[in-house]
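One example copied in:
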Amino acid sequence: MIHGSDDGRAVARERAKELAVADALVSIGRALTLLGTQLAAVHDDDSGEDVAAEVEAATLGAELPRGGLGPRQLAVLALGGLDTSMGLAVADVETATGLQRPNVHKLLQRLTELGHLEQVPDERPARWRRPQRAAAGTSQP
């Protein structure tokens, strides 16, 4: 009986080790993705104006103050899924950018405050999209 509980503890310790290694590998993968993105940016001869122009065009003519938005914000705004009526969830943006979930959520909230995104109503988990424009032909005061 004593040997049985020792075996159970050993199995639990081994499982905990495997889970810790798996978590570490996921973290390493994210770090490598982020490092690769940053290295590509360092070695890119491009000033970033092309990305800013793409993002500006993708926002349907809304003016984006280049100086007011950082590279992460611009990278999020460049995601195509934000153009759909369903938008993107935090997990979608996290996967596409390699940023960590808490940072992505804060970034999406800040872009919403700035008027570049809106939260899709009544969606769980929460989703964000570009603001829906008034229908053509609708006059605004």
Q: What stands out?
A: The radius of gyration is 22 Å. DSSP finds five helices and three strands in the chain. The beta strands are 88-89, 118-119, 127-129.
